[in-house]
Design brief:
Elements lengths: L8 E4 L9 H16 L3 E4 L13 H12 L22 H13 L3 E3 L4 H13 L23 E3 L7 E5 L3 E5 L8 E3 L7 H11 L4 E5 L6 H11 L5 E5 L2 E2 L17 H5 L4 H9 L14 H7 L10 E2 L2 H13 L3 H10 L11 H5 L7 H7 L14 H4 L6 H16 L8 H14 L3 H13 L7 H25 L1
Parallel strand pairs: 1-2, 8-9, 10-11
Antiparallel strand pairs: 3-4, 4-7, 5-6
Helix pairs in contact: 8-10, 15-16, 15-17, 15-18, 16-17, 16-18, 17-18
This protein binds one RNA strand of 75 nucleotides through helix 4, strand 6, helix 5, strand 11 and helix 10.
Length: about 475
RNA sequence: GGCCUUAUCGUCUAACGGUUAGGACAUCGGCUUUUCAAGCCGGUAAUCUGGGUUCAAUUCCCAGUAGGGUCACCA
């Protein structure tokens, strides 16, 4: 069924009506991956035929979003290409040309009704609990079409259509799905139903990948392909992404967020690809953490799901953490430093932060919670906090002094977490419980109830500062 | 309401018609440990219901139920 000899051409065709969300990007991702995998062409096309809903800046937003996540295109509005332009509003000549063909073949006619009249037909159908079909009201002698009038397609062959979908297999729909839909609106712009077919034809798109909300209108498209005597492309209907409740399709109305928010929250692009890839597709193995390259390699239309996939942000956090863990040290440092104020850009605290976050934005929380204060300002604390459970001040003092003496004798060069651990554990093992030694040391260094262990803390603070802080704890205990 | 379509642990999913129904997230427990985080080990937990077909059904068929989509001069 798939045409192996022909070059694969896919496209992502958003309309510039605001921000893109995960659903849009997931569609783009699959179309892109399929083209990439087959050395095909991936086109970015802007479907800006609804001037009323157009939102300024949308195109930049799409471009920025795609570039951020790492999806690139071979042809598009910003880079041009052999089938330019890539904005529908600049392709009106093409639509007009095909409209003329349809008009000549008596496959199109001018719609004489006002919008209000059509609306009345619709209302009536709705009240009678019937689907609204314009063709029930098809005018007998339509006026000669002028560009200020809406132009409708004329379905002549009212029948049940069947077609193949690469995801869902063989599909069919009743004749009720066919109607005289608008080809060109009163404002001169084409509708999606018409424009995308002409564009896909002219741009040589071989595989149409889009959400499965288009299944219902596919028979309309098929009737238009037939009228124009165009060969059908391959259809790849993608399952919807459901919201967190798993019930409704995720959309802007119900909380889908601006895709760039994920960038602002510090998610990794590859993690986003990984996450999005698995909503609606699964390669079958048990591997769940994939690089971009692995995803492209594994991607297969046959394994795209039929039923809707849920959107689970907990899983995204987990995937992102896995990607953070796999980051090369220099890149990890670069990322983390970019979220840190200058005084905290300390090489050695990178691992401490890395294992405590699932996304880089969590660093802001760590800073706000004071978890990183100890690295650039001296901790404040009361003597009670230095005591472990029921250990007395006297015993704690003895332990701390013991630690102090031992650490003082350690060379600056040997002041590593490994060495310090050996030393502290040795002292701690001689105490009643290890906590008698380790807790006061950790607390003296951090001043925090929760913190990294005292060994790594000593190393990061360095010998001088470690000794200082231990001395201060001893002072406070002596008060 | 018409048409289309979907149904496996709480969530995302795997399983040529034959499996103790597998994995991941979450959750719970243990180990490690001064605390936190990380790590390691383990537990709980699912085939929507009812009929068929078959030696055998999560898998194929039908119905029911429950979801989703669509019925625009939006895409």
């Amino acid at each position: 069924m798939e045409n192996i000899n022909k070059k694969i051409v896919t496209r992502f065709a958003p309309s510039p009506t605001g921000f893109v969300h995960v659903g849009n990007i997931r569609t783009a991702l699959y179309a892109w991956a399929y083209a990439k995998k087959n050395n095909g062409t991936f086109i970015l096309r802007i479907e800006d035929t609804d001037k009323a809903r157009e939102v300024e800046g949308s195109i930049d937003h799409v471009v920025t979003s795609l570039k951020w996540i790492g999806i690139d295109w071979n042809e598009g509005p910003d880079i041009g290409g052999p089938n330019a332009p890539y904005k529908q509003s600049e392709r009106l000549d093409s639509y007009l040309r095909y409209a003329k063909i349809l008009l000549d073949k008596d496959y199109a006619y001018a719609d004489p009704y006002t919008e209000e009249e059509v609306e009345a037909f619709r209302k009536k159908a709705e009240e009678e609990k019937r689907p609204f079909l314009y063709r029930d009201h098809r005018p007998e002698n339509p006026p000669v079409w002028e560009p200020s009038m809406p132009l409708r397609f004329k379905v002549k062959d009212i029948k049940s259509y069947e077609w193949d979908d690469l995801v869902r297999g063989h599909l069919k729909a009743g004749a009720e799905a066919l109607d005289d839909f608008i080809l060109i609106k009163g404002d001169g712009y084409p509708t999606y139903n018409f424009a995308h077919i002409i564009d896909d034809l002219e741009m040589g798109v071989t595989h149409i990948m889009r959400g499965d909300e288009f299944i219902s209108s596919t028979p309309k498209f098929l009737s238009l392909y037939d009228a124009l005597e165009i060969k059908r492309p391959e259809f790849v209907m993608l399952p919807p992404i459901m919201g967190a409740d798993g019930k409704k399709k995720l959309g802007k109305r119900d909380g889908a967020k601006d895709f760039l928010e994920y960038r602002n929250e510090g998610y990794l692009p590859d993690a986003m690809i990984n996450f999005l890839a698995f909503i609606g597709w699964n390669p079958g193995g048990e591997k769940e953490v994939l690089t971009k390259e692995e995803f492209i390699e594994l991607f297969d239309i046959k394994q795209i799901h039929i039923s809707g996939g849920g959107y689970n942000e907990e899983k995204l956090d987990w995937i992102n953490k896995e990607h953070i863990k796999r980051l090369p040290a220099d890149l990890l440092e670069k990322h983390i430093f970019s979220w840190l104020p200058e005084e905290l850009q300390i090489k050695k605290i990178v691992p401490i932060i890395a294992e405590r976050i699932s996304k880089f934005g969590d660093i802001k929380d760590m800073i706000n919670n004071g978890e990183l204060d100890l690295f650039y300002k001296k901790p404040e604390y009361q003597k009670e906090k230095l005591l472990y459970k029921n250990t007395s001040i006297e015993k704690t003092l003895i332990n701390l002094k013991n630690v102090l003496l031992t650490l003082e004798s350690l060379n600056e060069d040997d002041f590593t977490k490994e060495n310090i651990k050996i030393i502290l554990i040795e002292i701690a093992d001689k105490a009643e419980s290890r906590g008698d030694v380790l807790h006061p040391v950790r607390f003296a260094l951090s001043g925090l109830d929760k913190s990294p262990d005292p060994f790594i803390l000593s190393e990061i603070l360095g010998k001088t500062e470690t000794i200082n802080r231990l001395n201060r704890a001893i002072e406070i205990l002596n008060l």
